[in-house]
Design brief:
transmembrane helix; mainly beta; membrane; 553 residues; single chain; transmembrane
Amino acid sequence: MPKAAASSLEVSMPAVVEAEAGGTARIECSFYTAENGSSTSITWFYMDRSNRVRLCRIAGGEILEENVDYKGRLSAGEDRALSISRVTVQDARTFVCQVGEGSHVLGENQTRLHVYKVPEAPEIVASSGGASVRSSEIPEIARCVSRNGFPPPNITWHKNGEQLQPEENTVKMPSTLTRESSGLYTVSSTLFAHVTRQDRHSLYHCSVHYWLRGQRRTAESRRVNITVFYPMEHVKLQVLPSSAPVKEGDDVKLVCEADGNPEPVFSFSKRGLDNVWHDVSSLADTSSGVLSLHDVNKSSSGLYKCQALDLDDMRQLEKVVELVVNYIEGVCVKMEPSSPLREGDSVRLSCNAHSPLSLDYQWKDEKDRMVAKGNQLFLSNLTFETSRNLSCQVVAPSVPGLEQSKRVAVAVEGKPRIVSISSPLYVRQDEVVNLTCKAIAFPRPSVHWSINGTAHEYVEDQHVASNLTVRVSHDLLRAGAMCRVSNALGVSEEHIQLLDQKIPESKGVIIVAIIVCILVVAVLGSVIYFLHKKGKIPCGRAGKQDIARNTSI
């Protein structure tokens, strides 16, 4: 601590005291008197430029006189230290502690009060207009500002974490320092720098530097990226999705990409069979460079060209890609013999298709069940029951999901064959019954009955069933009914026999005998009961008396 030079009293004070604006500054003033006299007083001054201005006088631990500018902000401690509250930047000056006794000055010393205010975190704003690599002037990158600092702070610029230095005709970073009415400082800076294509990924930030308690401190802004404009150098054209081969029916996108910024204008064309390029840009989004093709087919295959036009220098680049649409076409099924099939015949089915790919053939029935593999299917000993619809499924194993199919009907023709009939049928006269007749044939037959009634007909595959509801008459019991099934190839008939449902005679005789026996027993029992009541049967009573007598003995 500095000491008073020429005096009878040694006064000790710190050379520098630091205080934050708005806080309290405490300035110590220490001295020792041999007499420890109570008549000693302290007068405080502050230096205004080269003038000494009286601040206050302290005696007996009390402030007796006070400078108007500091009124209400001064206080004295028991250790003779002076405290200044609500410190402002204007308080950054030299304070003098003078010790005296009466009018005699015993000694003095001084302290420099440093006031600091940590500046606000720097705010950075990137240039909204971007920067071009072709710019002849140094383009603006960003602006940075930090407010309310004391002493005046300064700003530095950084790119990708490294500090930038001014370079003639390449990097400039002018700064402006403004003193606010509060006495605090606002510092702002603007970064100008030439950019390259690689700077489209660069991150810029600014840092504000200030002193605090004798140390240099730093606060950083957020990182910003700017829009960099640069010419295109390459164009890429690809077919999406690219994970699997393209097949007919797919939706395909041809995506054209250029490495310039801003994006160039895209146009698309397709080379025709006449070897001439035909414009297809109407199907594309020329701003994003996407050509969309929906439900592609064989004719969608071919060469496609993307042209990218840079509007800055009117430079044009192009790229060509081939689109290959895998397909299966011309699926047909040939039947040998082709003449109508009869029961017992055999037939060979052959399936063929056209495709640039290797194909597999499968035969399936109406329920999509596998019947056979290979492009040929041989069926022998055909019957009405084996008539069915088959499909030939053609698959390209190398292209998942690429398949076509063709259906064919294997129809066995012939006159009807009755397969089920409700005969013989036991009925009672005047009873309402159902007569059933079921046949199979192709072409579809018609069913006729020899008697009148209410008929209901049902068809399932090659089968035709007819139910006839009738009332049983005497004539129907006697003659029965005839079911007649016919188509263009012939007629089949079956007779339904109706039998009267009577009780057999032998069973009737037994029943009558049983009934007669029951009646005889009943009559006999009634007669015995009647005679017993009239006393016509003494043997019963005598017997009872004899029994009683024997019991008493």
